[in-house]
Amino acid sequence: MNLSTKGRYAVMAMVDLARHGNGKPVALNEIAQRQEISLSYLEQLFARLRRGGLVVSARGPGGGYRLARAAEDTRIADIMLAVDEPLKATRCDLGSPRGCTGQQGRCITHDLWEELGHQIHIFLSSVTVADVVNKRILGKSRVERTEQQQENAAA
Fold first, then answer.
1. CA Rg, the chain, in Å?
2. CATH code for the structural domain at 5-154
3. Which of 6, 39, 40, 98 has the most CB atoms within 10 Å of its CB?
4. pTM, full prediction
5. What is the DSSP letter of 154?
């Protein structure tokens, strides 16, 4: 399963907006510069985020974008869905009579990948922009890295 730049960049930009906005509009060129994302690409993403009800825009001097709701109420899954980032791990098209194999049937591992996509959605639905801003995403991989670093330091 590939996560495109569309989803990753949208999440990065929303976290930047939450971190630097403090309820005030932030210009897209500032986000683009801080996150090293093309301004034109950000404009496309923010048009989708605005249509998705996740950001509001302010025109004129001092204008830009701000979060439409609190960072604590903005879920990462909502951002992904707003920019049309599919949260699935199968190659089947939803509702299509064609299966994974390109015919009528599903591949032998279909249920595995479908459940993985479901678990990803559950995880991203449980994480808010505030969680990312406040570095409250401490998964097992971080614990293992820390333990590995401690072991290397002791050796």
1. 19
2. 1.10.10.10
3. 6
4. 0.79
5. H
